[in-house]
Specification:
By secondary structure, the chain is of the alpha/beta class. The chain is 47% helix and 10% strand.
């Protein structure tokens, strides 16, 4: 009778990255230094820790490192597994549980907050005013397309006007390139104006939860409103020309901010090979981690002064909007005449 053959699992040696790399090397590989990595791990440790260490189960720190490596590089999970000494299925499970924990409502509300107090709003307005003298600005808004693999369901809805599949992501930055609002859930075919119209931002402004004379800056893809100032398409007065010049210089914050976000996390540069739901978790996780890096003064790798050149924001064809009797357009004209 043939002897039973026992197959033993072979466990590869796993790196101790925090001991192996300096903070500079950790930032290059994971986008956070050792303190930042341990801080993120402490935030979600209870949610991602394994019940036991049987069969060499990953620790919560190892799961965070695998996820950060994926977000930083966008490499295939098999490659990241080889780098870290684990299998591809292990990488997939680690990323899944870590992304879910990073994007919990508690984490989002803690690290991505739209200013609500008078003091916070005033600080934002002063920071924006220092750029080009544009008054009353609390944030700069734009949309950016994050490419994804063709989904199995509703595939056509995800094809954007550039003819690739994407998540159209609405993002608002403050003057210090910190994300104060992000919406990552809409298929690529959705226009920016619809995303804004169905977002919590519109509710905040139009239900008077934000003080009057507080504005967002947006490009011509958005409708002009009392709380959302867009450029004049055909300026023909000195005040309109001055307004447009200050508007362009001030709104460049959002273009540079998106450039920083995508350069910090290369997964946002290429095609995210995950379901739309998980791709949205990737985008939100990157936004949260970007703000953590800002809070902890962790530099963006190869950070340059001109942060807007290496990223693609939405390029809009002007639309004709219903502005409630052109109230937004009249307000913009009055605003330009008063301040410029």
């Amino acid at each position: 009778m043939a002897a039973n053959i026992v197959h033993r699992r072979n466990f590869r040696e796993r790196k101790d990255c925090l001991q192996q790399y300096s903070d500079r090397e950790l930032i290059e590989r994971f986008r956070l230094d050792s303190g930042g990595i341990l801080f993120v791990e402490s935030l979600i440790r209870d949610q991602i820790s394994s019940g036991s260490r049987r069969n060499m189960a990953l620790s919560s720190l190892q799961k965070v490192l695998l996820t950060l490596r994926f977000l930083a590089t966008g490499k295939m999970q098999l490659c990241n597994g080889d780098d870290m000494g684990v299998s591809q299925p292990t990488v997939s499970r680690a990323i899944t549980v870590t992304l879910a924990s990073l994007t919990s409502p508690l984490m989002i509300s803690r690290f991505v907050q739209f200013p609500s107090s008078a003091a916070e709003i005033r600080r934002n307005q002063e920071s924006f005013h220092a750029i080009a003298g544009f008054p009353g600005i609390v944030g700069a808004i734009d949309g950016t397309h994050i490419q994804i693999i063709a989904p199995h369901e509703y595939e056509n809805e995800f094809v954007n006007r550039h003819n690739y599949h994407s998540i159209n992501t609405q993002v608002v930055f403050d003057a210090k390139y910190r994300i104060i609002d992000v919406v990552a859930k809409w298929p690529g075919s959705t226009h920016d104006s619809r995303i804004l119209n169905e977002s919590g931002l519109r509710v905040l402004f139009e239900n008077n939860h934000i003080p009057i004379h507080t504005h967002l800056l947006g490009d011509s893809g958005y409708p002009s409103k009392r709380w959302l100032l867009t450029p004049f398409l055909r300026p023909n007065q000195p005040s309109q020309l001055n307004y447009n010049r200050a508007h362009k210089k001030t709104r460049s914050v959002v273009e540079r901010g998106i450039g920083q976000l995508k350069r910090r996390f290369h997964v946002l540069h290429g095609e995210i090979r995950l379901s739309p739901e998980k791709a949205c978790q990737v985008i939100l996780s990157c936004a949260i981690l970007h703000n953590i890096c800002k809070d902890r003064c962790i530099p963006c790798p190869q950070d340059h002064e001109d942060d807007g050149e290496d990223q693609q924001v939405n390029v809009h064809v002007p639309h004709i909007f219903n502005n409630n009797g052109n109230d937004g357009l009249r307000y913009r004209q009055q605003f330009a005449e008063t301040h410029f």
